[in-house]
Known about the structure:
The chain is an alpha/beta fold. The chain is built from ten helices and 13 strands. The protein has two domains: 3-215, P-loop containing nucleotide triphosphate hydrolases (Rossmann fold), CATH 3.40.50; 225-287, Alpha-Beta Plaits, CATH 3.30.70.
Amino acid sequence: MTAAIAAEGLRKRYGDVQAVDGVDLEVRSGEFFGVLGPNGAGKTTTLEILEGLRKPDEGSARVLGLSPWPRNSALLPRIGVQLQASAFFERLTAREQIVTFGSLYGVGAARADAMLARVGLADSAGTAAEKLSGGQAQRLAIACALVHDPELLFLDEPTTGLDPQARRNLWDLLREINAEGRTVVLTTHYLDEAEILCDRVAVMDHGRILKTDPPATLVRELDAPTRLTVESGRLTADRARELLDGSGTRADVADDGVTLTIATRTPAPVLALLAEQDALRGLEVRGATLEDVFLQLTGREYRA
């Protein structure tokens, strides 16, 4: 597959802060690509360089085969951008917002109605943007980014602050956009979101990309234990340890008074043991997730 984005050695400094520190990145055409990282990892700055909003101090980038900086008038109609903080024109309705954005690209007003239906806002066409709910405002921002039919879409944390239903609805829309052949680049703090939507993800911290691979590959490489949880009370932690030791099965056992958790790399004998003890009530089996990968690579300390 051809590269929609190819960046080498990108660096950007703000005073004493090295926001982006030697980023190499390739996003394939038609790919749904995620950029993950804690606060201050450099995700947004990297996207802003690729979007042509910021000049890198060092390095080079090609987006759809063109340089994004200086602001490239040949590239702008081919990309769509939904920024981390969306801003709309004051006192305009949802439809008027899309018409106005479309006019910047020479797109006719009829396209606005199609886009409103596409993002599920047809019934809110006459509602002022400031009166929309959080989920509706995010869908409007994506409609404005898509109104000129771009090949490549940048989305910077599009589901932050949304309720679970609004997030799921937005996921469906993003899947449809990507299925049409568009390349989508997404930054997000929601690891389940990246695991479900993205073909590949780059985990970023301190301005550097630490790892890039499909989510499933990253999870497999972690080689984390499987966690089996059951309802407390059926089997005590001490008795579980005794039985496990007797069977030669290596496992960590913990009981918080609500749930008995057994972490092991050999879950089959543990399941058999629990069944023999009639202790399968409330059973859940959980393998590693992208969140485990993320925490291993970036650490667990609090980030402001």
